[in-house]
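Hey L., structure's done. Input below.
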Amino acid sequence: MSLLITIDTDPAFAPKQALPAPERLISGNPSFKTWAQDASKGEKVLTGVWEATPGETHSIKGTTCEFCHIVSGLVEIEETGGETKTYRTGDSFVMKPGFVGVWRTIETVRKIYVSVYD
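Output:
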C-alpha cells in the first residue's frame, strides 16, 4: 500500500448518497454525494470528494477540523456571530473545531475534504 494518495476529483466509482438530517435543513432540497478515498489513523483522518446541490443547512463541526478545497461551484458560509464568506472554484478554507454556522450551496458544489476527528 502506497503512502502517497492521489485524490480523484471525478471518481469512476459510485458515491454514497445522502440527504441532510431534518434538524439541519434550513431551506431548499439539497442532496449530498461522498466519494470517500482514504482513511488513516484508525479512521480519524478521512479524505475524499463531496458534492452538494443547492440548499441551506446548519453546519456544526463539534470536535472535527475540516480542510476544504472547492473544485467547482459556489457556496456562502455564515459563521454564527461572525461574517459570511463566499467560496468558489479554486478556493480553500478550514472549518476549525467548534465552528457553528450556515452552509448555503448557491451552485452545485464539489470539494475535496480532509476531516480530522478527535
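The mean pLDDT is 97. The chain has no helices and nine strands.

-- N.
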